[in-house]
Amino acid sequence: MRSIGWYKNQWLDIDNIFISATDRGLKFGDGIFETILIKNNQPILFDEHIKRLEKSSRILNINLKLNKSSLERLINEGIKKLALKDHEFGSIRLNYSRGKNKGRSLKVNSTSIKNSLDNLWLEFYQIQPDFSPISVYISQKEKRNEFSLISKCKTFSYAQAIQVLLEANQKSFDDSILLNTSGELCCGRVFNLLIKRNTHWITPRKESGCLEGIMIEKALKLKIAKEELIFPEFQEDDIIIAINSLSCRQINKVNDLKLKSSFDPIYFWELLYN
C-alpha cells in the first residue's frame, strides 16, 4: 500500500475521500495543514508540527482543539497500514478545514472552539526525500506580505506558490524564491532558506514574512544558524539550501548567478532530524 487516507472514522483510498462542495476549505482555501515525515515508521517532530498547527488555528481564528493522544493513535495506525519497510520514508498530510459554509457568503458563522474530528482528514504516502540540486528564479510577479497573518500559517491556499512556479518554469528554472514587499529575502515557494556565508549559516528573519519552518527552528535551537535581515545580493561562494520537512536541496543557480560551492544536503538534513 503506497498511500492511504482517513476521514470521518474511515480508512479509505485517498481517491475516495470526498469533501463537500459546501466545505470552506474547498470553496475558499479556508483551512490549515501540516506535513510530517515518517522515518523508521515513526512520525518525526510530531509535537513541533502539532504545536505549529494549533498556533495557525489561533492566528486565523479557526480555533481547532484536537485530542493530541487520539490523533497520535490515528497516525500510528495509518503508519502501520502504510506498511513501510525500515529503510523507507513516508509523509503524513494533516488537513483541517474551518468546516461547512451556509450559502455563498464568506461570513464565518462561528469562531467558537471546536473539539471535533469532522473537519479533519489525513493522507499517508510513501515518499522519497528529495536531495537533488535546483536552480531558482527570484519572482518578479509575486511578493510575500510580511504584515499578513496568512504568511504566518500553512494554509490550503497555494495560488501564489503555483504562480511563482509557473513563472520560474517558463524561464527554465526549477523553482522560485520570493522577496517581501520591502525587497527583503523571504523564502522559497514551498521551502525555507539557509545560506552559508563566510563560515556562518544565516536564514531570513521571521519578520520577513517567511513561514516559521520546523527545520529552521531546529537549526536555530541547535545554534547552527542565526536569523538576519538578508537582501538578495548573493555571492558565488555562497551555499544556499532549500529545506523543508521532506527535502533538503542545494541551490546551484539563482537567476544568472551560478554558485560554485558543493555541499552534502543529506548529511545536513539528517543532522537536523537527529
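The above is record 1. Record 2 follows with the same two-line structure.
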Amino acid sequence: MVWTLAKKTAFYALVAFIVVVAVFPFYYAILTSFKSGTSLFRVEYWPQSFSLDNYVSVLSQGSFIRNLANSILVATTVVVLALTMAVTAAYALSRVRFRGRSLLLLTILSVSMFPQIAVLAGLFEVVRFFGLFNTMWALIFSYTIFTLPFTVWVLTTFMRDLPIEIEEAAIVDGATPWVIITRVFMPLMWPALVTTGLLAFIAAWNEFLFALTFTSSNMTRTVPVAIALLSGGSQYEIPWGNIMAASVIVTVPLVVLVLIFQRKIISGLTAGGVKG
C-alpha cells in the first residue's frame, strides 16, 4: 500500500515537473508581453501590471499583420498540397503492388533525414532558376518538399490498416481508384489527416531558415522572420515587450488548434500501433 502510494506520488510529481518545464516559457512570455518600461527587466512570476501597449505597437507598426497573413496563406497552402499528394501516394504505396515499393517508401522517408542547412544552397539555386525568389511560392515549394515525406509515411501506415474488403466492395460496384480514395478511404482517415495536416501546418508556420533565405521584403516575409527583425541594433535597444507580444500572437493559434484536435491527433499518431 505504501509502495503503491509512493509510486503514484512520484509519477504525479514527475508529470507536474514536465508540465511546468513545458508551460513556463510560454507563461513567462505572456507575463512579459503585458509589461512596459523598466518592469520588463524585473523578474516577476505573478502579474504586477497589465498593459496592451506592446500588442498595439506590434499590430500598428510595420507590416506584422501582412506577415501574419503571409504565414496563414503559406501554411494553409502547404497543408492542402501536401495532403492531396500524400493521400494519392499513400494509396499507391499501400494498395498497389509493384516492384520496389518498399525501397521507394524508404527513399521517401530518407529525404526527411537531411537537415535544412545541407540542402539550402541547392534549393536556393532551384528557387532562383524558376524565378520564385522573394515570392511566397518559394516558401510553399520548399515547405511542401520537407513535409511530404512525413505525411506520406503516416498516411501509408494508416491506409494499410484499413480493411481490404471495403476496397474490394467498391471495386465490385465499379468505383475508380480516385473514387475509392475520395469517397471510401478519406472519410475513414480523418484522424490521420488531421494529425499530419496539423503537424505540417505547425512546421510551415514556425519555419525560419528558408523564410529568411528565400524572401527579402516585408511584403513576402512570414512571422518568424518578422519577429527576428523586431530586434534593434544593440541589446539595449531590443524591444523585448514587442517581441514577447508578437510571440504570443503567433503561438496562441497553434495552441488552440492542438487543443481542439487533440483527440484526433492521438488517434492519428497511434494508428497502426495496435492490431486487433
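The chain has two domains: 1-51, 63-269.
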